[in-house]
Amino acid sequence: MVKNLEMLPEGVEIETLLNTLRKLSWGAADILLAYARGKQPPHGFQKALDVTNNTDGPVSAADLAVNKWLLNGLKIDFPKTKWGLLSEESAKEQDRDGVPFKNNWLWILDPLDGTKDFLKGTGEYAVHLALIKGNTSIIGVILLPEIEELWFGIHGKGAWCENRAGERSPVIFSKRKSIKDSILVASRSHRDQRLEALISKIDICATKAVGSVGCKIATILRGESDIYISLSGKTSPKDWDMAAPEAVLTAAGGSFTHADGKPLKYNTGDLNQSGCLIASTGVNHSALCERAMSIMKEIDPENYF
Length: 305
What we know:
Distance between the termini: 42 Å
Radius of gyration: 19 Å
CATH topology of the largest domain: Fructose-1,6-Bisphosphatase, Chain A, domain 1
Shape: globular
Number of helices: 8
C-alpha cells in the first residue's frame, strides 16, 4: 500500500485516487479494445469508428469516447477537488491561447496516444494520465490495452505495473551499462533525416521502432530498450504526449530531460515539448545528453538547442 502523499490536493487520499485511476484505465481499455475489434463499445458509446483527419493527425470515435469516459470519471469521483483538466481532445475547445491554468493541480490526459497505430492495428497505442503540481509531473499512468499492462509512477514513491487482477510486477531496467551497448527506441511515424542522423551518430548497439510514447517508455521499464529520443521537426510533441511517460519513468529511477539536461515542465502556457528530448534508465544520461547536443550542433547548427 502506498502511503498517503502530503503533496496531493486537500481531501484526496492516494489509495482512493489509485482505485479511481484503475477503474478509469481498465474502462478505457474495454472501450478501445471493443473499437479495435469492431465490437459494440461499453457505456453507451457509438459502435461506428468514425475518423476525422485534422492538421494534427487523425481523431477517431475511440479518442473521443475515452476522452469523455476519463474526464467524466474524474469529475464524478472527485466533484469538489480543485484541479484542472486538460486533454488532447478538449484542448482546442478550452483555447488557452498561451495562458497556463491557474489551478496548482492539473490533470493532463491523452485518451489515445498513437491513434495512427490504433487505426493500423499494430496494437502499439496507449492511454496517458498525469497529475501535475505547478509545472512538475507527480503521478503518471500508462495503460497499454492490448497487452493489459497498467503502469503507475508516483514521485518519490516508485513505479510498478499491474494487470487486470491487480497483481503487481516491478520495473526491470536492463543491465546494459554503456551507451555503445544500448538499445534505442524511436518513433515509427515521426522520423526525419535529422533524427536518423542523430541516431546513427550516437553510436549505439541497435534501434527499434515502436508506436505510442507510452509504449516506447514501457520497453525501457521492461528492460527491452535503454534510450528514447524525441526530436521536433515540423511539429512538436505536446504536454499530453510526455507528461505521463515522464512521470512513470522518473518515478522508477530513470531520467527524462531535454538534451541540455533541463527537466520537462508542464502548464507553462506553451503545450509544445520542443527540441531534443531524451529518456533513459538514468545510466550515462548526462553523457548521452552531451553527446546528443554535440551531434545536434554538427547536423543542425541553425536550429541547435
